[in-house]
Specification:
The protein contains six helices and eleven strands. With 235 residues, the protein is α+β, with helices and mostly antiparallel strands. Strands 1, 2, 3, 4, 5, 6, 7, 8, 9, 10 and 11 form an eleven-stranded antiparallel beta sheet that branches. Strand 7 and strand 8 form a beta hairpin. The chain is globular and about 55 Å long.
Length: 235
Amino acid sequence: MRTDRETIQALSGRLLELTPRAMQLLEDLTLTESEASEFRSTGFLTVPDVLPATVWVRLAEHLLPLLCSISIRVGLEHRETSATTLSVGATFRRVDPHRIHEPDVRAKMAFVLDELGLTELGSSLADLLTPLIRRIVGPLSFRHCYFYIYEEGDYVSIHNDHQVGDRVDVQFPVSLNTAGGIRVLSRGYMQMRYDVAGSMNVLGSRVWHEVPPLLRNDANTAPRRLNMGLRFTPD
């Protein structure tokens, strides 16, 4: 893991060198008025060109096999709740020690994230972006970093997360060998927001959304999607 760790830490350091566009927004937060208005309207927002895209793609490629090895498979079966309704369903992989109840599994997962420098990466990235997030959303504080991994056919059906309160997830998705993304309810329709490496999604807990099934573009290449998330909660 040593070589992997050194490569990942080097790429993580470069990832913290935010794009000129991101630095411009941080230097003049009044430039985010339209973003704040959109978030108030829909509960979701994409801010393009925040992280250096090429660096994030390279880091994701290195991270995926390592994170898969410590991930927990999430499988939520659909249930018929009435003759005309179906419960939420999902399949994906999660790397989030804060969602693990078994002490040994949680400790192992946290250890690997610490060893790879990913806990520090999440905290450092949150420190850089908190002024921007607060300007768009309001008084929030960073809690922890997590990762979601999607493989071929994985998805999360339409739902919202109202039951968790007013948390906000700041996410950096990247899709490899596929056109992945998220659909959000906006102006009466579920609208597709495609993943663009380096873009930042700001997702409120009360917006209806789904992750469509990850599909194969090439018969010989499996699709993959990695989503790095920073969880914020109200002060």
